[in-house]
Input
Amino acid sequence: MIKKLIPSLFLALILLHPSWAQRVLTGRVTSDDRPNGLGGVVVQATGTASSVKTDENGNYSLTLPDDGGLVTFRKEGYKTFQIDISFQNTVDISMEKLRASNESVSVGYGTQSRDEMTGSISSIRTDAIGNQPVIDLEQANQGRAAGVFTQNNGGKLGEGTTVRIRGGSSLTGSNSPLYVVDGVPLTSDNQSDINPNNIASMEVLKDASAAAIYGSRASNGVILITTKTGQSGGIQVNADYQFGVSQTPRRLNLMSPQEYNEMMVEYTLRISGFDDAITRAKLTEWAQAGTADFSLGGKTYSIKMPILDSLIYNTDWQNEIFRSGLSHRANISLSGGTDKHRVFSGIAYTQQEGILIGNQYDRFNGDLNLSSKWNTRLTSHAGISFIHSENKRLNEDQDLGSPLQAIALSPADSYDPANAYRMKVRSLDYNPLTEINFSDNLELSNRIIGNLGAKYAVTDQFSLNLDGGIDLMDLEDIRRQGPETLEGNPTGFSRYGTTHVLNYLTNAYLDYTTYIGNDHHLSAVAGSSYQHSLSSYTYRTARVNSIDELQGKSDSDPGLFHPDVPGGGFAFLSYFARISYAYDQKYLLQLSGRVDGSSKVGTSNRYGYFPAVSAGWNLSQESFLSDVAWLSVLKIKASYGQVGNTPDDDFIYRRNFYPVNYGTEQGIRLANLSNNLLNWETTTQLDAGIDFSLFNDRLSGSVGYYKKNTDGLLFPVPVSRTSGFDYVLKNNGSMENSGIEIDLTTVNVQTANLYWSTNFNLATNTNLVSDIGGQTLISGVNAFIENQPTGVFYMPVYLGVDPQTGAAKYDNGIGGYTTDYTIALQTGRKVVGNPNPRLFGGMANSLQYKNLELNFMFQFVEGVDKYNQTGEYLANSGIQLLNQRADQVNRWYVPGDQAEFPVFNPTQENTYPSTRWLEDGSFIRLNNFSLSYRFPTDQLAKRGLSNLSVYVGGQNLVTFTRYTGYDADVNYIDPEGGTIGANISRGIDDFTTPQARVFTTGIKIGF
Output
């Protein structure tokens, strides 16, 4: 239905083009730094209500009276330009960028000029993400902001990302930033629903001074997202369409059928006790013959292996599961209005196929923003976004039904589509193609994000703001597994679950700004906020092969499992304030803070207090630097303050219960021990930095240092097991993060026809768990250990192969080695690696030559370790007769071999995790690339168009890395591990889908 509506809506919007105008002035606005077009310039017929805003290419179309008059061009940071157009129909101008640009930046409950800003805030260019073929908003921002580390949880569509701003600040709670969209703090943890094309600005609040106004939820940073609003003037319609092809960027070199069959022969002989007869050359001979003829101990043997007569296929399992996925994305937006009432609306449709078979994601976005000026005192705004998404999901990475698990199957075997895709020879091996063809795994989501507010200017300096917002999400989890599948056998299995999240808030605040004389500028914000969130869940399962049949079962049906799933909810009552003072634009001071009361903490500590102070000195405004011609901006700034982090679970401070089944009877069970003293996690942060702009803004940027100390970490403290539990959650730990951030922008070439600029950012982060009461918490190969970074790799050290026995050697912890893994685990386990990068960043380039524009960006991550858990199975000398990487043929065969890999042990079941699979996960990647051509404005105006451009591009095009797995930039998160599991199990690649390489082409058009 949605697909059919889009062409009709597109045509309807085109028909709204204002053909009734008496006269239309068109043209293009450029500047020294944007010679191919300056977007966001307000073009207004002076003395009238007629005005428009230039599009991202600098084009405009303004309706005018027949007679001449003045037209004004204005944009913050640029010198206002005014011209008498007489009876001209086309006017192109170039605007002059002001020295020490004073553009406004969103800072939470208001804006602030960059000149007076004392906090650490990074702005992300939203025009840089419009051409990128991404679903997740965070993916588009990788490498674009200093101190913001973004890692993908995998390459399956809709799988999400992990975002860390200046390192994580919690061990058991969320480390994700707080996302605020048009003033609405999101709680449903799915900010990627937002259409990137409709984002006007994004700011990342990183230090305590910038983020303290969000108090108890700001220790992980805050990302402010502002969506586009309408502009006064004639109706403007913009549309774009993008087509993409996704491919697998890398394939593993796996065993050939012949090599696999040699391993089968070796398995047969070693499990039969004929180890001494084996040589690598003989294995090749015997695999080809199907019989092993040899003499051993004076006896002659002839071992027939009839299974080899059946293992005659040549199946490339990577070809079976990977595909070229097609994607389509269409956007249409309408903007316009009068001087009093303005509107912006848009619709978007995205359809994307994943590189793994069976994976597809569809999303529809609808947005409407209204803003009105009712009189000289009263203004209002309203906005609503509707998002519908359908995600055809795949099984979790570790599940045997996940497509990528197929690469562990024998390449000498095949499957029978007529027999439910079962394996022809090794019939007990589960083929994921059975899961793909005989199951459904669908997530449906409907979401509404809305805001409504008004501002009343009591005086020219003092105003009252009232606003509210809502974030409403309904999600359906639909799962059906046919009787042909592993879990559905023999009757089928169906599951239906729902999630309903309602999050709403209200804000009321006063803002005041005044100038005292010519030198003193004072501004203040003070107000209160109330936020309430409610969550409810349902869950039904039955051994049936139909969702309709499942839904038709009565609650009393004995074949139905439908437990009462506890819902959730929390509330915040907050008070906040910010006071900023600037003297002579030189000396800056800001005080800010928030008082938060929350239902998430114990009643003994219901309110938390989070203050911050910051100061700055604009040295470039001093008289002793006024004659330094090459210096435009030089500002030093520092801040100190506290922000918080709330517990991840609702009501965790009290005793909670959950339903359980005892046979056919239902009961309840205690979920946790209570702790009414449960408190906030508090992060104290020191920040210092320098902002600068040199050589007439040809070189600008900032350098900063930060140090964060988090106290009161929520951590499981052991208790007597007579309580029925192993631990109780207490505020019992501390953590440190420190680092340096560098952000540079250079204008390399600036001529009439050519402009080339580069943005480079780099950040370091040193993380340390300083106190957790002497405990060590271990999860797999990761651990929380005092005086070590979070989630360090903690495992036995692999020392190679014993040349006489072929056994793997491990450090025994006392200066020698052992071939007994149990001893290595007990005495030799040590900290061997760090999943947290030492430094990371990106370099983006923008080149404009006449009507051509080239943009490309490299992202880099250095000093990070990656655990190739896939290698535990595919590079483990034939464990469980799984297919192996081709290099595993270089294993030990006979005494004296100086082999790279241990002997094939047919009885081995444990994978024996060790540093054997710990690798350098550093990489440099050409993250995105686009080349666009913009058609000349004068030619377009004759055809009633304001802009037209075409482009080609790509994402994840080339990666330089020493990592041997599919993708160094993925991080498997066990869905059963919860928040603690996601924090501790870092840097894992466990049959994790790689990110796709995507090639795109598109067209943008404006009316």
Remarks:
- The chain is about 10% helix and 50% strand.
- The two ends are 26 Å apart (CA to CA).
- The CA atoms of residues 6 and 243 lie 16 Å apart.
